[in-house]
Amino acid sequence: MKKISYFLLFIAMVSCAPKGAEPIKLNIDGCEFCKMKIADGKFGGELITTKGRIYKFDDIHCMINYHKENSATNVQSFFIHDFNQNNTLIAAETAYYVKGGEINSPMRGNTIAVQTDEEANKMAKKFKANPISWSEIIK
C-alpha cells in the first residue's frame, strides 16, 4: 500500500511540474489568440504558465495580445520561433528581435527573433528593419 501511495505522489508531482517548450505541429496546432492554424515555423511562439499549460501562437503579436488580455495568467516562460531555424523555439527573454521594415509575419506583428545580436543586425539590414528589445515587446 505504501508503494502505491509513493507512486501516486510521484505521478502527481511529475504531472504538475513546469514544462519546457513543446514543438509546434505546423498546420495542425491552432493559435490560442486568433484561432488560425500555425503554418509558418519562423514566427510562432508559446506561452507556458506556472501550472505547465502551454498556449501556442502563430505570431509574436498574437502571443503578446493574449498575454495582455489574460494578465491574471501566471506565466512561467515565453518561447518564440528562431527565424533562422524553421520551427525551432528559443527562450523569448534571451532572443534578439528585429521589427518592421520589409518583415511580413502572419498577423502583422512583423517581428522576428534570432539567437544572437550579430544575426539580428544582419536581419535588420536585410529587411530594412529596426532592432527591438524583449522588454519593449512585452510592455
Describe the structure.
The protein is of the alpha+beta class. It has 4 helices and 7 strands, in the order αββαββββαβα. A 4-stranded antiparallel beta sheet has the order 2-1-3-4. It has a 3-stranded antiparallel beta sheet with strand order 6-5-7. The protein is globular. The model is unreliable at 5-18 (pLDDT under 50).
Classify the beta-strand content into a percent band.
15-25%
Overall residue-averaged pLDDT value:
90
Q: What is the helical fraction, as a range of percent?
A: 25-40%
Query: Could you give the order of the helices and strands?
Result: HEEHEEEEHEH
Nearest-angstrom radius of gyration? Answer: 17 Å
Structural class: alpha+beta
Largest sheet: 4 strands, antiparallel
Measured distance between first and last alpha carbons: 52 Å
| Number of H/I helices | 4
